[in-house]
Amino acid sequence: SSRANAAGSAQRIKVSFEFFPPKNGDMESQLWDSITRLAPFQPDFVSVTYGAGGSTKKPTLNTVARISRETALAPAAHLTCVGSDKTDVDAVAREFQAVGVNHFVALRGDPPEGVGAAYRPHPGGYANAAELVAGLRAISDFEISVSAYPERHPESPDFATDIDMLKRKVDAGATRAITQFFFDNDVYERYVERVRRAGIYVPIVPGILPVHNFAQVARFSKLCGASVPERFARRFDGLEKDPETRALVAAAVAAEQVNDLVERGIDDFHFYTMNRAQLVYAICHILGLRGQERTAVGAAA
Ligand code: FAD
After folding, report:
1. At 16, is the secondary structure helix, strand, or coil?
2. How many A from CA of 78 to the centre of ligand 1?
3. End-to-end alpha-carbon separation of the chain, Å?
4. Could you tell me which of 231, 146, 228 has the C-alpha nearest to residue 187?
5. Which of 107, 195, 208, 222 to mutate to test the pocket of ligand 1 (most atoms within 8 A of CB)?
6. Quick count: other Cβ atoms within 10 Å of Cβ 283?
7. What is the average pLDDT across 146-157?
8. What's this model's pTM, rounded to 2 decimal places?
9. Which one of 18, 95, 131, 189 is the catalytic residue?
10. In this prediction, what percent of the chain has a pLDDT beyond 90?
11. Pocket around ligand 1 at a 6 A CB cut-off
């Protein structure tokens, strides 16, 4: 294999990449440039997010359909159950299946009013992600991933409630959890210990967010309950108007985070790419991955 980890040992690093559906032609080109650039790393799967508030399936459907048609990558479609009844959600899942999707990232979603607004299940809908997982399982033998929150979901009163929901999702048939992003590996490690103590044995794949824009990340972290350690914030301090240095620092910071996770025995990473390839490419390279550029279609610039 062309893969080996940074230390050169035989440990095989697995990666997956998350993209969001483009809103216009320019964003579509950016997305496809990024997919083409990252494809040679042979990710386990590439996932495409679903519109916030359960808004629209179309952009996600078009994107996974194109991935399925034009690449050798395995697409995973995010799917939420917010604001729809079960019949509609099931119909959407079947539409995804018809274009080549066999892997779902099953989520409850947030209310259309936004993160933090009180969640009300649709009267005829799946009440939470665990019910959605069961619904998908009833349709087909899909691969199903779900969310996990190393710092608790903002609506969870405590870790026990949070991990209980994860347990319900796994009992319903989820085979992998992908975490919300985090910047403190101790937080992740403590969380995984709690999860294992609760008798959950599926992989808890760390979700890594390379920082393209620190101010944005800080705002978003507040909303979704992820903490930003002071020493982490300090790294980006004063670089607001210096994108070049910021990118170098972001690569260094993310490399430090993933290398530390490798040292802790982690060999599977999910990257929130924000539809940009450069940082993720650098981090995968540092992880020891080497793309098969020469054989990849379209890789010749
Ligand atoms: P669930 O797993 O159903 O619940 C999350 C937590 O909320 C639980 O741990 C539980 O503790 C708590 N909770 C739920 N119900 C109750 C209750 N009745 N009482 C007490 N506590 C409760 N959103 C999108 O719109 N589109 C996407 O594509 C998308 N992709 C994501 C991918 C990942 C990897 C992650 C981590 C999140 C993603 N989200 C996405 C965001 C997600 O929709 C929100 O975080 C949402 O608020 C929760 O969805 P969930 O599936 O995690 O919910």
Report:
1. strand
2. 12
3. 25
4. 228
5. 107
6. 24
7. 95
8. 0.93
9. 18
10. 84
11. 49-50, 52, 78, 80, 105, 107-110, 128-129, 147, 153, 155-156, 161-162, 165, 178, 180, 207
